[in-house]
Write a structure and sequence with these properties.
Blueprint (H helix, E strand, L loop, with lengths): L4 E7 L2 E7 L4 E7 L10 H14 L16 H10 L8 E2 H7 L6 H9 L12 E2 L12 H11 L10
Parallel strand pairs: 4-5
Antiparallel strand pairs: 1-2, 2-3
Helix pairs in contact: 3-4
Length: 160
């Protein structure tokens, strides 16, 4: 049985908790406060280092073993998200096309909303076809900040 480990990182968007087992990162999400009930491990520290570099503009891609829990469809949607380049956006329909399910636009939106690995699996890069910012589990203010940051429109100034 794998041991669950956590690391926390204070980012311009607030605290982020990184969860991993002995094999891979299983979740990255925004939290209100840190939780020291689980020790860190090498993977959570590596992810924290890579995220810190991202927020310093020293990294645009992540090199981490990931193991998000979800259905086959969700995992396909999340894998497609990882193909969206830093600083670019895609529409939900484009993501549906990429996984070979062009009529599954709403299901793509639901899968993106269930993405357990924020930032590294960049669901914030998917927008509505009319250019509108639609849903983000971390909140639309964070999605807007991440997109502006990646497109060079922001310094590293905190959102909060």
């Amino acid at each position: 049985m794998s041991t669950l480990a956590y690391s926390h990182l204070d980012t311009p968007l607030g605290w982020v908790r990184i969860e991993a087992d002995d094999q891979a990162i299983t979740a990255i999400g925004f939290v209100e406060a840190t939780d020291e009930s689980h020790p860190e491990n090498d993977l959570t520290r590596l992810a924290a280092d890579q995220l810190a570099a991202y927020f310093k503009r020293d990294r645009t891609e992540f090199d981490l073993p990931l193991a998000p829990k979800g259905t086959d469809f969700q995992r396909a949607a999340w894998q497609a998200l990882r193909k969206i380049p830093y600083g670019e956006t895609r529409y939900y329909a484009q993501q549906a096309d990429l996984i070979g399910r062009p009529s599954a636009i709403r299901a793509i939106g639901a899968a993106n909303g269930a993405n357990p690995i924020a930032i590294v699996v960049p669901c914030h890069r998917v927008i509505g076809k009319n250019g509108s910012l639609t849903g983000y589990a971390g909140g639309l203010d964070k999605k807007e900040w991440l997109l502006a940051f990646e497109q060079g429109g922001l310094s590293q100034e905190p959102l909060l």
